[in-house]
Fold:
Amino acid sequence: MTTELFSLRMNKETHDRLAARSREIGESKSRLAQRYIEEGLRMEAHPGIFFQDGPTGRRAVVRGGPDVWQVISITRRFDGTSDDILRETMDFTGLDQRRMNAVVRYYAEYRDEIDEWVRLNDEEGDRHYAQWLREQEVLAR
Structure:
């Protein structure tokens, strides 16, 4: 990824809050401002999507619902037409049509990023399952 120099003036209160947050999480002010700008642009382009920190990092979340990657992972469990898959996913997740549309639009634009989240989650699940099988084997003796 290439970067370009960009000078930005902001009011003192905003700067002080950015500096405090930067110290709190150990991330540079420049990197943190870049993240906030990128996320702001994405949220503006995709109403209903916001970003949230969690144990596995910062990720896109549908308002009032699960992470975007979780919804996409769920869609892969169902067969049928795209309408069937969307209906079953909405039934399973409790998402309404508007929020489901937000997920699909976001995924269409950031497919590689979301697919990576799904892949990492699948790998983690496989590791936990393999560990559980080993434990069951030990207990069965």
Summary: The helical segments are 12-25, 29-45, 68-75, 82-93, 97-109, 111-140. The chain has a mean pLDDT of 93.
